[in-house]
Amino acid sequence: MYYQELLIFSDILIHSLKDKEGRIFIQTHNFPDPDAVAAAFGLKELLNAKGINAGIIYDGELQRHALIQMIAHLNIPIHHWKHYELTNSDRIIIVDGCKGNANVEDLIGKEIAVIDHHKSLTTDDVKMIDIRPEYGSCSTMICEYYQEQEVIPTAAVASALYIGLARDTDLFTRGMTEMDLAALTYLFPYSDKGLVNNILRNNIQLTDLDYYRKLLTNLVVSKGMAFCYLPDGCPKNLMGILGDFILSLQEIHFVCLFACNNDQISLSFRNNWDDKDASVIMKAFTAGKGRGGGHKQMAGGILDSDIPADPESWFASLKDLIN
Fold first, then answer.
1. Are 239 and 260 in contact (CB under 8 A)?
2. Which class is 9-201 in CATH?
3. Labelling 186: which of 66, 86, 108, 125 has CA 20 to 30 A away?
4. What are the pLDDT digits (tens) for 22-60?
5. Which CATH number does 206-322 carry?
6. Are 162 and 189 in contact (CB under 8 A)?
7. Phi/psi-derived region of residue 233, left when phi > 0, alpha when psi is between -120 and 50, beta in every other case
8. Phi, psi of 75 (to 5 degrees)
9. pTM of the predicted model as reported, rounded to 2 decimal places
10. Which residues form the DHHA1 domain (predicted)?
């Protein structure tokens, strides 16, 4: 834990924001997933309950249809940062990411807080930091904030946090802890179960099937490891779904996916070996040629734009790192 043990972070954050002029924005990581959007929405509504107004912003795209449906059905007011004219006086709270990470755009404004559950490098100029890599989701952290502040979440907030928690733990099978279970138990009675179940069940669409075909056609398997390079690209959030799909095979324990997206190589790793750490392997692989990080069970990264595509070399290097 990076937060101060003797203090309640949500108290510190709310106190620092009250009665001060200037806009506040909650920034998710780029190409946000359900956990990032849910955590940002939950935090926005909690601050609103305390008389503090904040907007939700992101960089990249909202790529998954299920996420767009979640945003629409729950009326989540999230906008691309270009929707606003950001200024240096704007205050930014980064959620489900950390300043300096490859997947967090450095926007105009002052980053004042980081709320994250990834293994992250913190920066000295961010005063308020709550990083809990032992948690399965950022939604769990926001749920605890509600309990600390004795604020009952609305059905929309509870449903969003439920979905975020479920998605980031792969339906409660990946990195699930007692804190996440406690959050699920708390959120369950307040959530719209029908809506939650519908969004969780319908996570892929017909247009995704072509990516599944390309993945299965080009998959290379070796001693419990699976590798694939998609030269025609793949939406970043779909890469994680594809990785989870391959990891569900009984013979596969580590998945490494690469995709050429906008002249840049995107990476997505999935792991269920107890003695391996996807985040450590990602950082070792991208050292000197890109950036990446994540969790023991899953990690993401990018290679620098001047790195040529060389899947055979990548796979050989990863075999050595994983072994």
1. no
2. alpha beta
3. 66
4. 899 999 999 999 999 999 999 999 999 999 999 999 999
5. 3.10.310.30
6. no
7. left
8. 55, 50
9. 0.87
10. 226-304
